Amino acid sequence: xxxxxxxxxxxxxxxxxxxxxxxxxxxxxxxxxxxxxxxxxxxxxxxxxxxxxxxxxxxxxxxxxxxxxxxxxxxxxxxxxxxxxxxxxxxxxxxxxxxxxxxxxxxxxxxxxxxxxxxxxxxxxxxxxxxxxxxxxxxx
Length: 140
Hints:
This protein is an alpha/beta fold. It has helices at residues 3-19, 30-42, 53-62, 80-89, 109-116, 128-138; strands spanning 22-26, 46-50, 67-70, 97-102, 120-123. The chain has a 5-stranded parallel β-sheet, sandwiched between helices. Helix 5 (109-116) links the parallel strand 4 and strand 5 (120-123). The longest helix has 17 residues, at 3-19. It is globular, with a radius of gyration of 16 Å. The termini are far apart.
């Protein structure tokens, strides 16, 4: 490939990445992250994945997402609520919409998610298309 063609391809790729909305999926279960990622990608979103709140925060700091979809219970010493509070407290990431997508269905979980700064609360099982609909509602 000639340098001129490569530069045009690289510029096109950069424009595509810059205009594609980025979704960060955070869940300890890789198969669930992948299921949601595949559906979101088919709908034109770019996805990032993480199993822990710490890794998710690092990713979000480096590549700020438009939407974060997180499980409430995560591996490690931080929860999805901790992640949400941290993201909402930082200038670079506070714009991100947060969806709590969780298998937990205890009294007070939805209120705790709202208090932490979540913009939406979904319970599992959740069809991937239902998550896509939720994400679309949160975006301008």
